[in-house]
Amino acid sequence: LNLKLVSQQQHIRCLCNTESHRNTHHSGHDKQQHDNRGFSKSSWMMVAGAGLFSYSVWKARHQLQDLRNQFIVFALDDEKDKESSTDKTKEKVQEPTPLKEQVIPSYVPYLLIGAGTASHSAMRAIRLRDHKAQVLIVGDEDNNPYSRPPLSKELWYGEQTGIFYDPNDFYGIPEDLPSTKYGGVAVLQNRKVIKLNTEDRIAFLDNGSEIKYDKCLIATGGRPKNLPVFENASKAVQSRVHLFRNINDFVRLHTIAHTRKSIAIIGGGFLGSELACGLAHRGKF
Q1: Can you tell me the distance from the alpha carbon of 115 to that of 219, in angstroms, rounded to the nearest whole number?
Q2: What is the Rg, in whole angstroms, of the alpha carbon atoms belonging to the chain?
Q3: Does residue 149 sit in helix, strand or coil?
Q4: Cβ–Cβ under 8 Å, residues 183 and 131
Q5: 142 near 190, Cβ under 8 Å?
Q6: What are the C-alpha distances in Å from 69 to residues 63, 150, 162, 247?
Q7: Burial 110-125 (b: 16+ CB within 10 A, else e)
Q8: First CA to last CA across the chain, in angstroms?
Q9: pLDDT in tens for each of the 285 residues of the chain?
């Protein structure tokens, strides 16, 4: 009888332990499911946040690139269009809207002679140190500062490249520059500084105007040299010789590249080599 009671007690204990283990297992499983649901929800929130941030960055960059590309874009046909059409290339040039006749200010604190990359970088540095600085850039082209390297690289390979550093509305009007309360930048186009009086700090322009300044930077850049053999040649020969430096030179050479059977490049430096590769890519010479 005692053995029978002990056996029944052991059986009851086993049942209790089994039930307790089962309850513990279910409780742990429910807790794990709850944690998994919480973890899954948190993970999805993090993924959604990261995706939203990535999309915002991509959209901002895309809008900035579109903004840069609207100033000047050379859209070139692909190879199939070039082979199937007698007109090998379609050129689409959208240049900045030409400004009205500019009134030249008589005085500016900062005068930058030249409208290339060096002047643009100097302008950025000046504005970074002095947010109220008034900067006038004088250039001999009818364009705002732009990057010249793409003229001998990307544009020859059919890439759509915005070459201007800033949109037109970034620059103010030269006439209004001295009266700007919080400073600004203006570009005086189609003008050359032909003489400087460094003692009195006066710059003399090619149209007879004078500009007084506090500080001046000369950053006119380099220019290609013509050769005496071409300068002294007949007009027929001179009409076939072109120098390469700016946007107008690119447009001219780009047109010639599709109307001539052969082109000779004089100069084996970086620019000459890049143009040779670009021309070879665009046509058969």
Answers
A1: 8
A2: 35
A3: helix
A4: yes
A5: yes
A6: 10, 13, 4, 15
A7: bbbbbbbbbbbebbee
A8: 115
A9: 343 444 445 544 544 455 554 555 445 555 455 455 554 566 666 666 666 656 555 555 544 444 444 444 443 344 334 444 434 433 444 444 444 567 899 999 999 999 999 999 999 999 999 999 999 999 999 999 999 988 998 888 877 778 999 999 999 999 999 999 899 999 999 999 999 999 999 999 999 999 999 999 999 988 888 999 999 999 999 999 999 999 999 999 988 888 888 899 998 888 999 999 988 887 655
**Cα–Cα distance list, 285 to 49, 92, 239, 245, 251 (Å):** 54, 23, 20, 22, 18
Q: What is the pLDDT of residue 41?
A: 60
- 94 token code pair: 């959208």
pLDDT of residue 10: 52
pTM recorded for the entire structure = 0.63
**Among the listed residues 78, 112, 77, the one whose alpha carbon sits nearest the alpha carbon of residue 193:** 112
Q: Where are the domains of the chain?
A: 224-282
DSSP state of 146: B
- Which two three-digit tokens encode residue 126? 């000046």
**The token pair that represents 72 in the structure block:** 């000047």
How far apart CA 119 and CA 102 sit, in angstroms, is: 20
Q: Which two tokens stand for residue 166?
A: 């800033």
Q: In which residue are the tokens 């690289």 written?
A: 153
Six token digits for residue 102: 């500019």
Structure tokens at 262: 């052969």
Please report the beta strands in the chain, taking only residues with DSSP state E, as ranges in sequence order.
Answer: 107-113, 134-138, 184-188, 193-197, 202-205, 210-218
| Nearest CA-CA partner of 115 in 185, 175, 180, 181 | 185
